[in-house]
């Protein structure tokens, strides 16, 4: 076949015209009219271009390849509650108390602030003993003077005076004991915040009214329950458990006595298992101190207060200084 130079139809070697090839893929179809659409077939869009098949070139679903959003507790969605991401140090879940860490932290902070806690506790014990002895001696001596005449009237006055003396001594003891508890707990809470403490913090009387009301309510309740066998003892245990953070809330949040009791009950019912261990460990610290005699109490009281302050910060999701 001779080469076609354009403009003249191609011919073979014998001089005959060669028919043009049929329309192929990607070539215009010439004057051939398009086929009529079949009934029910989709109508092609203008220009003859069909859309790409489903799924081809579509964007990825929302969130594909991105980090899952954080949950309200600060953990990625889908991660089991209370577990830490791989490679990060362990930390208890919100509201839970690590007993071992709390115990170690309390002893460590007592060692760093032993002068404040030890001297302050010693001065409180001396002050409470002196004041209660003076009050008892004053009222007791007054009653004995009235009853010296030996008459029935004098004996009656003496008996009434003894009852009044006992009530006054009890009230003074409750007041001083409550003030001591609030003072040592307030000092421990300052330690959890990383603030420096001094001996003056052990004699903070800024919440004296509500502290005394709370102490008086607890004393009256426990006094009445003493006369109820078995169930009274169970009720006393329940009071100790549910009002465990009462002084903490008065000092830390400036709550009234009733509001502090209500809030303490709510805190102690959020995580019963952890809270029971906290109360038992705090009581065990004090008991061991009592067994170790006077010096042991001077150490056990502040350590128990520091441990309870640690637990309080944990159950309220507060910050604890290392």
What does this structure look like?
Helices cover 57% and strands 0% of the residues. The protein is mainly alpha-helical and 322 residues long. It has a domain at 101-315. It starts with 98 loop residues before the first helix and ends in a 7-residue tail after the last helix. Residues 70-90 have low confidence and may be disordered.
Which SSEs are present, and which pair or pack?
Blueprint: H1 99-112, H2 114-146, H3 152-192, H4 208-225, H5 231-242, H6 246-253, H7 257-270, H8 272-291, H9 293-315
Helix pairs in contact: 1-9, 2-3, 2-9, 3-4, 3-6, 3-9, 4-5, 6-7, 8-9
Biased composition (Low complexity): 64-93
Protein name: Membrane protein
Biased composition (Pro residues): 34-63
Give the class from helix and strand content and strand pairing: mainly alpha
Quantity of strands, as a count: 0
Shape: elongated
Number of helices: 9
How would you characterize the largest beta sheet?
A: none
The SSE order reads HHHHHHHHH
Write down the overall mean pLDDT.
Answer: 78
Biased composition (Pro residues): 34-63
InterPro entries: DUF975
Region (Disordered): 1-93
Transmembrane segments: 114-139, 159-189, 201-221, 227-251, 272-300
